[in-house]
Structure formats: structure tokens, C-alpha cells
Fold this protein.
Amino acid sequence: MDQSERQRSSAMPILVDLVAMYIITGLLLILLAALLGRVDMSDAAVSIGIIATYIVSCFAGGFLIGKKKKKKKYLWGLCVGAFYFAVLLLGNLAVNRGLDGQLVHMLTTAVLCILSGMAGGMLS
């Protein structure tokens, strides 16, 4: 197996897991929106729901990649969580044309995504 085939075989499980993570995110956000439509929720409750969505999605992605990769599962989970956050960050930058004073929020989200992905990898 040459170098490019090895890189593709390493990248494909990560891409599949990222797609699965964003499907989970979408389903959880739809559930949160339905709940918001039925119950009058405060802004704090909605924020907690969004943060919980990030954590559950990254944990699931770390768990899935840990099942696929048998060695260094925590590191693979960390990488998947970091890639998930990177896509979130790029989407935020594209929509908002910058961070607009959200640096602390973004750093907190990065830590949550990375650590929950790592925890999912460790527990797989």
C-alpha cells in the first residue's frame, strides 16, 4: 500500500464519522426546535440544549471512530472532535464574517467538542 492509499484509508473513517456527527447534530437540533415550539423555553435553556447537542454529537463521533480504530482511540476521538469544531468555526466565520466578540464562547465550544470526542474514543 503506497502513501496516498494509506492516507485515504485513514481519512475516510474520519469523514464518515463527521457526516454521522452532523446527522446526529441535525436530528438533535430538530428535536430542540420542536421542544421550543411546544414549551416556552428561556434563552439559557436553549443554549444548554445546543451545548448538549455538541457534547452528544462529539461523544458519538469519538465512540464511532474508537470502534473503528483499535489503537490510540482517545487520540482519534480528540481529532474527530477537533475536526467537528473546525467545521463549526468555518461555518460561523462564513455566516458572520468574523467572530464578533465571541472568542470566549468559541474557545469553550472547542474545549467541549475536543474533550467529549476524546471521552467517546476512550469509552469505545
The helical segments are 3-38, 43-68, 73-96, 103-123. DSSP finds four helices and no strands in the chain.
